[in-house]
Amino acid sequence: MTALLEIRDLHASVGDKPILKGISLTINPGEVHAIMGPNGSGKSTMSYVLAGRDGYEVTGGDILMNGVSMLEMEPDERARAGMFLAFQYPVELPGVGGMSFLRAAVNARHIEAGEDEVDQLGFVKLVRGKARDLGIDDAMLKRAVNVGFSGGEKKRYEILQMALLEPTMAVLDETDSGLDVDALRIVSEGVNLLRDPGRSMLVITHYQRLLDHIVPDYVHILAGGKIRKSGSKELALEVEESGYAGIDDAA
Amino acid sequence: MPASMTLPDLASATANSGVRSSALANWQATGWPGPRVESWRFTKLALLEGKTFAPAHDFADQPAGAGMDAAESIGAHVLRFVNGVVDPSDIENAPEGVNISALAADEDAMSHLRQMVPPAHPVSDLSLAVMSAGIIIDIKGRVDMPLMLSFEGDGATTSAHPVVFVRLFEGSYLQLAEWHASTAGLSAPLTGIDIAAGARLEQVKVQTDGQATTHLAATGVTLGAGASIDGFSLSTGGRLARLETHVCFAGEGADCNLSAIYMGRGEQHQDITTYMDHAVPNCTSNQIIRGVLDDRSRGVYQGRVHVAPDAQKTDGQQMARALLLSRKAEVDAKPELEIYADDVVCAHGATVGELDATQLFYLTSRGIPKDVARAMLIEAFLIDTIETISNETLAAILRPVAQAWMAEQETL
Amino acid sequence: MAATTETIEQVKEATGTYKYGFVTDIESDKAPKGLNEDIVRFISARKEEPEWMLEWRLKAYRRWLTMESPDWAKLDIPPIDYQDSYYYSAPKTVKKLDSLDEVDPELLATYEKLGIPLNEQKRLANVAVDAVFDSVSVATTFREELSKAGVIFCPISEAIRDYPELVQRYMGLVVPVGDNYFAALNSAVFTDGSFVYIPKGVRCPMELSTYFRINEQNTGQFERTLIIAEDEAYVSYLEGCTAPQRDENQLHAAVVELVAMTDAEIKYSTVQNWYPGDENGKGGIYNFVTKRGVCRGDRAKISWTQVETGSAITWKYPSCVLRGKDSVGEFYSVALTNNHQQADTGTKMIHIGEGSRSTIISKGISAGLSQNCYRGLVHMQPTAENARNFTQCDSLLIGDKCGAHTVPYIVSRNPSAKIEHEATTSRISEDQMFYCLQRGIGEEDAVSLIVNGFCKEVMKELPMEFVVEAQKLIGISLEGSVG
Ligand SMILES: Nc1ncnc2c1ncn2[C@@H]1O[C@H](COP(=O)(O)OP(=O)(O)O)[C@@H](O)[C@H]1O
Ligand SMILES: [Mg+2]
Question: What is the ipTM of this complex?
Fold first, then answer.
């Protein structure tokens, strides 16, 4: 079986500053991996490198999706190949209407597949349905993307996009931050609904509490740009109790 | 410096009117602004040097332009100007509440107009002196049918000098659209808008003059107590275009929204210049200015908010942003605050730059191709501003113009 | 709060409002009144200058004759009679500059009174001071310590004699002789000022400071400062200025040039407290100053910080020419005007180098009948790939008879360059005032407190030693503006 995502000894820099210093990770179809780590350890950097953001330069190693290297691919090509990133800090797009944005994203996939563009009315219905499950009301859908959304609303909107774009590889960067208990439950349920034998997830978080809802198959601890420890979901509990201190030393 | 541009029949254009001959004398003494005039430092009129223009004086019909279609789409009553000369048949059947009369016959009105329009602007003198058409539009009560002033024209050596004086009487209401689609050599509309106490004007201007046209518009607005104006300009036309508007707050509690978007490509030069004269207390002014510049085009925004001593409780806001799409595009901006009263809230902001990389990444990370993502952001940047227009009827005629500009962009 | 109240009280008791308004009674050697080529020759001769310097001055003088006083600023400048002023005045007893023993005790006392002790026992810790009295430098402290580090810090008149090759190479490079009317005048008649040279790789071991004092009546002060930081050098320099309280206006037209090479950093701070005139607008200094620095090398950095509370009229735009790749320019300014003062001040950031960055933070405070204008230019040249500018200009009005103006010029010739400009104008909010009053803080102290808070971003850029002084100065300068 080919891995869905294989990260091989990945090194990456921002500007001249090396941040990822040799990460290897294999994710098979259907698996949920969690990445935990202290602030500044490189978690978001890793998510950007996977999504192909400009300025995040891969200086060594490789990223393969379904056995194919993604390094030469543009962010939109990666996205259409099944990569999805739920941003830690989703950016506001003033003037870009939510519906037309979502439609453009879905249509880009249809066009590439040589299919017809989505039917406008049907699409609105589809979006509304999925939005309702996530507690997103019509008014929010009508607004410009992320503009004036609260922290929690932005996170829910990210998951809505994931539900619509049906990625094979979803990277969730601190999707739990800024959520209260109820919102956390709603978002987690949304994510869990998307768990599928053909879809893998990489869940980045600080806290065990998210992993109570989205139960991972594996947990990795990232510190100083490297994976210091990997294990089962119990590892997350360990971290919750004793912090990252011991893990740094172990490396 | 006298003008090097010549208008052969200038003398005959001004017959025995005190105001007009004084305007003519002024024009002849000063001409186009020289290189050291501060308010024209970013916009040079060198391309008018040595040109000879002849103003038209008789109405000559032409096939109807886009302005007429727009007028029809919103059910507006149209006043049609061809080469600056008004179609006499449009003057007659004006809607209820609208009265149209000849400006040249009314010395008091001309004198009043002259005090309102931008004082140092050459068109303020020149077009009043030449006046290819001069009309007064008086508004009484609430006029529900929008009014469209449609300006067309042709001829590289024709100059158009329409002068329009709109007077909204106390408590009246008007929706006014202005549409410029002229290929005349020089388009020099002079406009006075006098909004009496409690009256309200909702206004849009579309400037889509031909690529060889020089469009120099001078507009003066006066707001009485509690009067309000929601004005919006969209400027994509002209080889060189300058839309200059001076607003004078003459009565307390007046409110002015004056926004504009401009788009340039090729060698175009787009200039938006505004002056908010807060002469009395308790007024608000708000401006949103956005520009998109491609190729070798150049954008200019100059905006001054002046708050006179004692004009307390003034709220004056300006936000100007420009987006540069090509290596050779250029922008100059000079937002200015000139404040002589302390109990005020005034602010301005200006940004210049390319499309935001983070926003582009967000869109592309969702699988949207880069060129589509760029177009979406540019359109958002423009349309967002149009969405601030309170009058949906008028906003509706702007969107297609912005979208048409975008569509051309994509096919380039 | 107590400290501020105390200072205000002390100052009031001691000297009235302007605490530096006294006159030192000292004999002086003066050039005849007026300005002509002979006066230029007189100055050059008194300074024992080489021939090339005289030629340079004469060239500047002739250029000045052809120029006109700038009229574009928002300033109402009464006509200046350039023939009714002395262009050279020096304390008679000054001979050897580096031996403090020979400095007139009157002068030492003067500087002590100004809070700038020059003698060995009382020197400011870790601050080397060059004291310029009217037209000449009277003392420079810590010279030995500095020369050990290879740093040259001396009066410019001395540098012209001792380091002619450096002066010839750099003087007029950043501010050419004909740059503007006042710069041309200065080039013709400058009398003293400081020269600083930091060799490659040297971090200047202490703060350098020049203290300018105008004492004589009817005397203009035309100082000239040149600071050169070679590759990887660092220096922090501070100037302070005061003048006696006099009824007539006096002209101060300085030129400051900074050159920062690769990886060098120059931090230039000013606490300008020239006599502002009295509350009726009588007297005061005309402060017409050209200050400009060039970041010649990659990653060079020039930072201007100014606290401008003095002068009847200020015309001043400390600027940065950002030539080097990734070079950095900063301008932090507090300009406070009260009574009849007028200020037109700001900066120019000329971006030439790729990745160059600039930050402008300007805080204007207008009180009384004063007019205070920020005027600035941010220019992105076609080569300024990925350059950045951020500008924040805030104005505060105290009272309804003053004016606050903001006139930024933004010129972009490179699409990848990003410019962000923000400006606000407001007054002290009633909520803030009430909050302070409710806590028992008096009105004047509350204003001083709030204004200092308003200026905080700029104040924190000043060298530590001068922050407290500058804060007090703001409190004092605002006196009489409330109530
Ligand atoms: N754009 C950037 N420029 C410079 N340094 C960056 C940039 N983005 C991240 N870094 C640095 O990279 C390190 C890792 O950051 P990040 O990936 O955001 O950590 P995490 O998400 O684990 O908190 C930090 O030291 C951060 O300062
Ligand atoms: Mg992060």
Answer: 0.89
